[in-house]
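Hi everyone, sorry if this is the wrong subforum. Our group has a chain we'd like a structural model of before ordering constructs, and none of us has done structure prediction before. Sequence below.
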Amino acid sequence: MTAAKKAGRAADGEPGGREAAELELARQLAERAQAEGLSLTGPGGLLGRLTKVVLEGALEGEMDAHLGYARHDPAGRDGGNSRNGHRAKTVLTDVGPVQIDVPRDRDASFAPKIVAKRQRRLGGVDDMVISLVAKGLTTGEVQAHLAEVYGTEVSRDTISTITDRVLDGLAEWQSRPLDAVYAVLFIDVINVKIRDGQVANRPIYVALGVTADGERDILGLWAGEHGDGEGAKFWLRVLAEIKNRGTSDVLMVVCDGLKGLPDAIAAVWPQAVTQTCVVHLLRNSFRYASRRDWDAIAKALRPVYTAPSEAAALDAFAEFSGTWEARYPAIVKLWESAWAEFVPFLAFDKEIRTLICTTNAIESLNARFRRSVKGPRPLPDRAGRPQAPLSRHHQPRPHRPRPQTLVQQVEGGPKRLRYHLRRPPQRGTQVNQESRVTPLS
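Answer:
Right subforum, don't worry. Here is the predicted structure as C-alpha cells:
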C-alpha cells in the first residue's frame, strides 16, 4: 500500500486526518522535486506545475458542467455539443507564467470562469501590482520586479490599467454608508505632494471614527485645493458629507484646535463635544516663548493637563498664569481661549484620557500615508559604500520605547516638540499684549 493511500485512509478515519494527508502529500511532492532537480519556484518549478494541474482540472470540471457529462462518458454520444480538443494559453500567476491547456467545445459556447476568455492574469497578480504601486514603486520598477522575480514581461500600460481599476472601488468606498453613531471622531490634515499638471502641496483631510464596539474606521479622504491650507470652511463641508452618509451623531470630536473648527463641528452635530489636542496646544504655546524657557514652561504646564479634575486644572493654570503671564501673556491668552475645548477629557478615567486627549490615533495613520507617498527608500549598499569603523567596545543602544502614558506622550521632552515647529521666534524677541512678536530695541 502506497503512502498516499495510507494518508487517504487516515483522512477518512481521523478528525485531523485530512490535514495530515495534505501535509504528507506536500512532503512527497517536495522530495520528488528535489530528487529530480526541480526548483520550487520559477519557470518549470514545482509550484508552477501544481498550478497548471489545478487550473486544468478546474477547467475540465467547468467543461463537464457545461456539457452535462464527464469526459469519455457514453452519455455524451450523439448529444449535440461535445468536446473539441484544447488550445494552449499562458497565464501570469503568483508563481510566474504558467502554460495551460484550455478545453474547447464544438459550439464555441464554453465560457470558463476560473480563467475567463482573453484573461491573461489571475486575480492574485493584479493584487500584487496594486500592492507594489501602493508601496511607492513606479510602473517601471513594478515591470522590472515582475521580470526579475517571475520571468514575465508586463508592459507599463498594463500596469497602469490594473491600478486604474482601483479608482472605481475608491469612489464606491468614499461614498459608502456610515454608522449612525460614532463614539469618537479624530480629524486632521496631512499635506502631500500631488501631481496635477505640476507638483504642488495639497491638504488631504482625514477622518477616523471609533465605533461603539471600539473598532477604528477610516471614514474618508478629501483633497483640498492647492494654496488653501487647512480651513474650517472645508471641514464644514467634510463633516456635512459624513452626516449625509448616515452619521447622525458623534459623541466627541478630537481635533488640533484650528480656529473656527469648534463652530463647524457644532453646526453639524450640536451635541458633540469638541476636544482640542493637548500636544498641539503645547506646540502652539512654545511658539510664543524663547527656547531657553521651553523646559520650564512644559514643567509648569504639566500639573494643568494631568490634574484629576477641571477645578484642580483651573487652580494649576492660575498658578501658571501668576508665574508666566507677565513675560508671556500670549501663552496665557492662548490657553484661556482654548479652555472650553481643552477640559472635556478631564472628566474621564486615566485610561480613556490617554486615548482622547491627543490626535495620536490619526497621526499614526498620517505617518503611514507619508511613507506611502514618499516612495521607496534606497537600501544601503554596504558592499560598495565605506562604513564608519566601530570600536571594539561598541554596544548598540536599545530602541526607544513608545510612550504609553499621557505624560510620556506630551512630555517626551520639549526638544522633541521643537522639531515640529515651523518658524519659532528668534532669540532676543518678546511678545506684547496683542500677541505679536516684536524685536527688542
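For your construct planning: Confidence is low (pLDDT under 50) at residues 1-5, 376-400, 417-425, 427-441. The chain has four domains: 3-119, 121-174, 179-275, 277-376+404-436.
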